[in-house]
Amino acid sequence: MDSGSQPAARAENRGARRDPAGGGLLSPSPTAPAASRGTVIGNGLTWLAAWSLRVALIAVGLVIVGYVIGMLWVVVWPVVLAILLATVLRPPAALLIRWRVPAAAASAIVLLVGIAAVTGLFVSIAPSIAGQTQQITSGVIAALGQIQQWVTGPPLNLGDGQIGDIVNQVTQQLQQSATAIAGGVLTGVSTLASGLISLVLALVLTFFFVKDGPRFLPWLTSITGRSAGGHIAEVLRRMWDVLGGFIRVQALVSLIDAVFIGIGLVLLGIPLALPLAVLTFVGGFIPIVGAVVAGSLAVLIALVTQGFGTAVAVAVLVVAVQQIEGNVLQPFLQGQSLKLHGAVVLLAVTAGGSLAGIAGAFLAVPVAAVVAVLLRYLGEQIDLRDRRFSGVDDVAAGTPVTAVDGAAPASAATGTDTKTGTGTDTATGDDSETVGGDAVPAPPDSARQDGG
């Protein structure tokens, strides 16, 4: 072959494939014609339009769901509160059940003990509040006198007549708003009555959730079918574990904050030290915002009763305890259970508070954690399905799909087929795939394709 034909031969060989049996060269594989610029842009716009429509439909659906939840909030709130309480009360009830106590009796015992503990706590702080209210009132009056002396001196130099005019204007505005204030009082009474009804309903639902909770997932699986039921049961199991971990860890962290801040307030001689410690504990369930509010109230009481120096000492105490909590306890105890960034927590609390007030701020972090669990599970299933569609074995690819959030993967209790990492079917009864030692539910039958 002459030298002129060698480049052409090499170019032809580059497009050819070698026969694995005989070692010869097969015919070159055909190459797809290059798409025009207009075709590429048109395909991109089509893809963008399709996904924009999907996102718009999802947004509309979320708005409708939010509207329905708002309309049914008087029912939704007790249910959510009962679920949160059940995550705390179910472990001790399960322990009593293992000790041969009937489920109904065990649920009633833990619920009554919880109610008694909360009631006893509030009864114990009532005398402290009643006995030290006069001291705080005197401190507030003295603080107002100091403020009056400050505004009459430099740099404001307001005269007594000007201060009297300001007081008269405020008094007139309050008198003009008397009707609105009375209406607000009636609204507050109505809200209090509604809150008591919701609390009673939540306690009743808590009893049933604690007693019959383990029966829910098998019932749900029997209703929805083995394929969809396996996925729903696994997601709900992970959500339950995350909620329980959040409540227990947050209670522990809040208790530590309340104990150390309460001891510091007692040593500094701050009135209402025990109620402020209880408020710190309760505020701990509203991350970031609750601690700031409770700490600010403690500093304010110290300022009006003990003076500026003691208020600074209280502020240093509160900031020090909260810094230790935020930088040591929270990452160590809660980082693995929630896996939420601090910015996500802050935005969730802000959004929840703006939408539903204190209840929304309280529920914001658990809801965000539940949504994160759902998104992680969907991501796992998408990755698993992509590997199946591409024909890549999960174990060979070295990227096993494992359960997250410390939740147990779907097991053979749900009753479908399992696949091992080597592709061998076993009749263990769980429609899941064991990859790298961890069982992951397979996608629903409707999501499978040929060859997957």
From TrEMBL:
Subcellular location: Cell membrane
Compositional bias segments (type: Basic and acidic residues): 11-20
Membrane topology classification: Multi-pass membrane protein
Domain of life of the source: Bacteria
Predominant location: membrane
One example of a Gene Ontology biological process annotation: transmembrane transport
Biased composition (Low complexity): 410-427
GO cellular component, one term: plasma membrane
Annotated region described as Disordered, given as residue ranges: 1-34, 407-452
Keywords from the named record: Cell membrane, Membrane, Transmembrane, Transmembrane helix, Transport
Coiled-coil intervals, chain numbering: none
Transmembrane portions of the chain: 56-89, 101-125, 192-210, 246-270, 276-300, 307-324, 344-375
Family: Belongs to the autoinducer-2 exporter (AI-2E) (TC 2.A.86) family.
Name assigned to this protein: PurR-regulated permease PerM
Organism the protein comes from: Pseudonocardia alni
